[in-house]
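Record 1 of the preview.
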Amino acid sequence: MFENESQARSCAADYFPPHAIDHAMAQLIPAIGIRPVTDDRIGGTRIDGAPDVPPHFEWPRADLSKHPKLAPYDLSPEELPEGPSPLWFLAQIDLAEAHRLGRIADQLPETGRLLFFFDHLAGAYLEGPEAVRVVWDQHDTSELAPANVPKELAERADHLTYPAKPSALFAGVTLPQRGSMCPETEPLFEQMDAGEHPLSEFEEEFDQFCEEDGAFVEPEWRHHQILGVPVPCQSDPRGYIDHATPEDWVNLLCYANVEDGEGEVYFLIRKKDLAVRDFSKVSAVYMQT
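->
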């Protein structure tokens, strides 16, 4: 992800002659990005750590101990305990901050925060809603306080409870990824391969441009993404849960594991569910290179 079109244009100059740069810029796709900052605040955007919650908040749990899809995997009783187990907290998104970016946030609720939870261990083997919870918290920030992370998470895998990373949102742009099979971008590559696009003679340069991350102080953060078209490390994550109509799903959040530099979790929601603010049916897909 680029932080803005100007940054993308500057990078494009390293790959394309002047007459082709505008054609490359025409492929930019708006999305919301996340970058690290130094100031943490109650109710603010944050990656990892713990969420800010109201009194009597119930930390999301899931009972995955007897899930049939996990049977073939060698998960120990500590990794997959009996009964409902707490999920790891991955992100807190300040929705008011998102809407200050403009129309790019139109699909999201205007107030409150989205809190994202995921089972780091079992979720790597499950594609769907079982290992994920998304909470839309609408309490005023004056009612919030940092949550206490359940001790069971440290008992399961202490190394997966990462320190808090104060963050900020920005209105960024992404580029299509060859091989992602996203229905929104596949026609571009079909036209390029058929020699029917102005960028056809620059296919190799375009592919290199799409992988550009040299302009970023924190390159691994470029994979955090809200909305837009997925930029997966494999193929379209929406296709893993809905092969027939992946375009019916929204990329609510791509969480990148910047702590280990490996692994992405895609939180996906149907457009119709997002429109009515029903976050109870969010699905997750884990990917890594």
